# Entry
Amino acid sequence: MAQDEAVIGCIGELLLGTQGAAGPGEVLVSIRGGSETFLAWSDEPLPSGATVLVIHSRGIRQVDVIAWQSPFDPHDQSLAPY
# Structure
């Protein structure tokens, strides 16, 4: 199946958590001027609501994701100057 190259590198939010090797979840990705959902696979289970980065397209409506936290997130205390 043809890969959807446009989705690779996009950030999304898990609507349904992934189960690692046990099964996919569902991710909502902002793409092509709108939002689209994809089946989301990950190596490790990820919870619903997690922010993820799409790292690979498996073909029609299926992607591989990893947990993602923006390096510019103002709530990330590891970036605080003190």
Remarks:
- The CA atoms of residues 6 and 46 lie 23 Å apart.
- The chain has a mean pLDDT of 89.
- The radius of gyration is 13 Å.
